Amino acid sequence: MPRPFELGIPFLGERGKWNAITDVPGLQVGYTTLIEGSSVRTGVTAILPRGEATEPCYAAIDVLNGNGEMTGSHWINESGFLDGPVLITNTHSVGIVRDAVIAWQKERQRYPSTNRYGDSFFSLPVVAETADMGLNEMNGFHVRPEHVFAALDSAASGPIAEGNVGGGTGMKCHGWKGGTGTASRVVGDYHVGVLVQANHGAASRLTVAGIPIGQTLRPDNLPSLIPDGTGSIIVILATDAPLLPHQVRRLARRISLGIGRVGGLGENSSGDIFLAFSTAPAPVTPLDNQALNAFFAAAVDGTEEAIINVLFAAETMTGRDGLTIPRLPQAEVLEILRRHGRLT
Asked: Known catalytic residue: 270?
């Protein structure tokens, strides 16, 4: 399936080979997607920053609106380190996913290298969430430890799936079917990769390539169970550029600008939480702060494209109680952009 840039939608910046977070060397992504019966529409996304290696990464958290959860975030902001995998799932599965990560680290002997004490270790896993309670029976607790193990064990580099996959399986975005999306940018000798779990935004505010699509194109009969503008977005940003934790935090703060380009506001009921990290081996000789402007642009441009990639990859889905969330009608969007002279 062609991706939005291949259909002529203009985005700024130079893409990496796969236009994915996995363009950051060594980084791996794995999924478990659960679609069962009429009411299970959920899953798990796993990101291994250094693949099989367990050395920590310089990292930072930023928050646009805090109606959400990302475990382990306090220690990241305190220490400046991310020392394990990153998982994303649905809101009510955060606990079991967190516990399963620790069990996986023990069973696979993938101990955090900074938190070892003799033959033992402690772990504060990073697990984030968005709520799929419209399409998924979220209170059914369908995510189990074996699903977490499967996502972690399947993690790989290369091109990755988007749309109705992993933790994003049952999500919506700007009123349409949402889910998982990714994009990347090349900045000199380095890469900036973004992965989003998009479950946020109002249909009326959807903006594509600067054109207010949502003013003329909206889903029919938006369900009252999922009021327009509710939901959350988790964004994971990775780079191989040599950056210190405070510089990584500066990248994380620019993620909000990419969300805003597509029409996101960080509404009251939205959990907009971001994690950024650098996979450059520590200690590093950091880039000069003046050099960060190009990375700020990559963070904004990559986030914008990753969200649009979600909307173009996700398929119409029917779930719990017969609720259907339609996919974004690509042909109509492209025609609107064509009329405005925005297709390349």
From this structure: yes
| Residues 243-274 pLDDT 10s | 999 999 999 999 999 999 999 999 999 999 99
pLDDT, residue 283, reads: 87
Options 23, 62, 272, 301, the catalytic residue: 272
Spot the catalytic one: 93, 157, 232, 256.
232
Tell me the pTM.
Answer: 0.97
State yes or no: is 321 an active-site residue. Answer: no
What is the C-alpha end-to-end distance of the chain, expressed in Å?
18
272 is catalytic: yes
Question: Domains in the chain and their CATH numbers?
Answer: 14-316 (3.60.70.12)
Residue range 9-55, pLDDT digits in tens: 999 999 999 999 999 999 999 999 999 999 999 999 999 999 999 89
174: left (phi over 0), alpha (psi -120 to 50) or beta: left
- Counting residues of the chain whose pLDDT is more than 90, the rounded percentage is 91
